[in-house]
Write a structure and sequence with these properties.
Layout lengths: L22 H14 L11 H5 L5 E5 L5 H9 L4 E5 L3 H13 L5 E4 L3 H7 L6 E7 L17 H10 E11 L2 H12 L4 E3 L17 H8 L5 E7 L11
The structure holds S-adenosylmethionine (SAM).
Length: about 240
């Protein structure tokens, strides 16, 4: 398993937290990586049909944390395939344990920086759906440059969605919610699906994640964005 997350791209959206990998997570990492894990490869794009052994609608979750939401979705929708990206090894171990317990056949994991995985490994228009739930809010102004949800990242991510593919974002940090809204509005290929062009009610498909529960304990409101890659270029697109 390649846990290397070094990259020359400079500012990253994460710092590797020191969290301890428990003995059970370590066992799961060792035992289940061959079944569920895909090593980062900077030069060879992934053949997703070959990875999953079939062609089915595909959901990508970036920064899945301990993976509870991803495991629940994969168990609830055996007709779909799920790919998770996470750099926090205890979280990857936690998810692999759950995947093995539930004998999930429709889940794969890459333990590497999502920016590099999107760039190097995921072919254009290869995903039907992408989820980023409670990305690190990087509260301090001097850290805002580390926030994942910014127009260049979104443009990269959207290029990996098929036209009509969906993107779901959620946060419990109101200033980040507004920044996400501005960033998504700045990407012409993205259409906001909310009735008022802002946020949608909490979607029923999402199970409360660890960070959502934490936000609730702190009395934070939760903001959900539902977006879609436009099927055709927007009317005011100058390149149209
Ligand atoms: C605040 S936590 C939220 C975890 C989970 N989605 C939840 O709601 O409980 C953000 C997660 O994103 C991961 N992360 C941040 N930047 C990442 C990146 N560039 N690639 C992969 N994972 C990333 C972090 O390691 C962390 O586990």
């Amino acid at each position: 398993m390649n846990h290397d997350t070094e990259s020359p791209r400079g500012i990253r959206s994460f710092v590797i937290r020191a969290g301890r990998v428990t003995a059970a997570q370590r066992l799961a990492l060792d035992r289940c990586w061959p079944r569920y894990g895909i090593d980062f490869d900077p030069v060879r794009p992934l053949d997703l049909d070959a990875c999953f052994g079939r062609r089915a609608p595909r959901t990508l979750e970036i920064g899945f944390g301990n993976g509870d939401n991803l495991a629940a979705l994969a168990a609830a929708h055996p007709e779909r395939d799920y790919l998770g990206l996470e750099v926090h090894r205890p979280g990857v171990g936690h998810l692999l344990r759950r995947a093995e317990e539930a004998q999930l056949g429709n889940l794969r994991v890459i333990a590497h920086d999502a920016v590099e995985v999107l760039r190097a490994m995921l072919p254009p228009a290869s995903l039907d759906e992408a989820l980023i739930l409670f990305p690190d809010p990087w509260h301090k102004k001097r850290h805002h440059k580390r926030r994942l949800i910014q127009p260049p990242f979104l443009a990269l991510l959207v290029s990996r969605l098929r036209p009509g593919g969906r993107l779901a974002l959620a946060t419990d940090w109101a200033p980040y919610a507004e920044a996400m809204l501005a960033a998504t509005n700045a990407v012409p290929e993205l259409e906001n699906l909310a009735a008022d062009g802002r946020f949608v009610p909490r979607p029923a498909w999402r199970i409360p994640t660890r960070f959502e529960r934490r936000g609730e304990r702190l009395g934070h409101a939760v903001f959900d964005l539902a977006l879609q890659r436009r099927v055709s270029a927007p009317a005011d697109d100058p390149l149209r």
